[in-house]
Every structure is written in C-alpha cells, then in structure tokens.
Amino acid sequence: MTTAQPARSVVRCADAEIPTDHGPFTATAYRSATGTEHLAMVFGDPAGTTALTRVHSECLTGDVLASRRCDCGPQRPAALERIAHTGAGVLLYLRGHEGRGIGLAAKIAYQLQDRLGLDTVDANLHLGLPVDARDYADAAAILHDLGIDSIDLLTNNPAKAAGLTAAGITVAHIAPLEITPNDHNTHYLATKRDRLGHRLTRVRLTDTL
C-alpha cells in the first residue's frame, strides 16, 4: 500500500517554446522547495483535461550518453511523439530521480552488476540504498500548476501510478510505453518485470532471472 504524500510547492521559473522533431512544445522550468529544478514539456493545451502524461525520471546515462543498458533514452522521444500525436499532453522531466532516486554516483554501480553479477535491485541493496527512492510530490505540484488533476499515464510501472495517486493525481488509465529490448538491456528489463512488477511483454519469457 502506498502512503499518501504531503503536498509540496514548486515555483514556476520560466517558459520558452522549444521546436522538436515532434512539433513545438512549451518548456516550463520549475524549482522545488529543496532547490531541485524540473522541466515540463507541454504540447497543446492539456489544462482541464485527462492529459496524456509521461513522468520521466532523469537518466543522464540513457538520455544524454545513449547508454543501451536501460530503456530510458528511447522512451523520452517515444513519449514526446505519442503526446504530440494525441494533440495535447505533457512530459515531466524530473531531476533528482537518477538511478531510481539514489543519485548518479551511486548509480554508476554497473561494476557491481558486471563484477558480482548483481541486477539493479541487488546492486542498490548491496550499497545499502533503497530499491526505489523516488517520490512524486513535485510531479503532482507541477501538474496541479498546469491545471491538470487527472492523467493518462505513459508508463510500464504500476508503482509510478501508485506514487502519483498518493501525491494527489488521479491516474485514469495506464498506457504502456515499451521499447524493443537489445542485447545490453534484456536482463535489466527482465529485472523490472520479475522483481519490480513492470508490465513488459517484449522481454522474452526465457529472459528470466
């Protein structure tokens, strides 16, 4: 059971139109009470609707360095494309969520996976860190500021939907956002499916832990 999260405030700092491969988005920067800066990429006018929404956790290795160990990098443009095709929606880029919230330095525990044969769950636990340290109070505050209280959530992760619900957002529907596995991330995706409950159908049944 997910415990309700206390309301949190964010400050809207700046807006700019960003031309993308998927059409023009309005980028709105927010700053949380802890100083963490987040970005909302808004397409069309989703206020007052059940908006198609992607809550995308920061992933420098996937989003910037194009690491093939995860599915984060391809999910971001796929989400922008889906949102633009729908005509209105938002992608929230949440900073401070690197490595499911444990931070970049701790996330570079790939050596634990390689040397000790640990998956991402056991690598976190081996370091004395939680399996998932993310919360979604900032995401909820940003959505409320954008006039969005109900969403269709682009995710494969039911726990993300539960976290947003606990933060005060109505998740009307979960829309899958699957990426075709590659030779480097099949085990990672199998871990998500088998140990974290992600709804993944493209990972072969033989790819078990």
From TrEMBL:
Signal peptide: none annotated. Its cofactor is Zn(2+). Its EC number is 3.5.4.25. Binds 1 zinc ion per subunit. Zn(2+) binds at residues 59, 70, 72. It catalyses: GTP + 4 H2O = 2,5-diamino-6-hydroxy-4-(5-phosphoribosylamino)-pyrimidine + formate + 2 phosphate + 3 H(+). One of its GO terms (cellular component) is cytosol. NCBIfam families: PRK00393.1 (NF001591). Catalyzes the conversion of GTP to 2,5-diamino-6-ribosylamino-4(3H)-pyrimidinone 5'-phosphate (DARP), formate and pyrophosphate. This is GTP cyclohydrolase-2. The gene is ribA.
